[in-house]
Amino acid sequence: MRKGEILGLQWKNIDFERRTLSVNRYLSHITKGLHELKTSSRKRFLIFPDITLMALNDHLQKISEEKSDMVKAIMTAIWSAVSEV
Asked: Keyword annotations for this protein (predicted)?
């Protein structure tokens, strides 16, 4: 994979059941934006091994936990501020 394609990936590009990754966009270093791949021959699906699937699942779980912790901290801070009023 090209660097711009890797940087253009999103979680929705991963099919965990089929162990595939759809490559269909890239991050341009010139425009600093995301763009669809120009030709259909560049759009493709990649199959990844079980170890990659496990690493992605672990990372997704960690992100979800961190998000949950952050939401709890924000809600606690808001509740504390409201309670003091």
From this structure: DNA recombination
- 36, β-bridge pairs: 25
Task: For residues 5 and 43, state if they share a domain.
Answer: yes
Cβ(37)–Cβ(26) below 8 Å:
yes
CB 37 within 8 A of CB 23: yes
What are the pLDDT tens digits along the chain (85 aa)? 888 888 888 889 999 999 999 998 888 888 878 888 887 778 899 998 999 889 998 998 998 888 888 888 888 888 777 776 5
User: What is the pTM for the complete model shown?
Assistant: 0.65
Same domain? For 7 and 33 the reply is yes
Sign of the C-alpha dihedral computed for residues 51, 47, 10 and 13 taken in this order = negative
Residues 31 and 57 in one domain: no
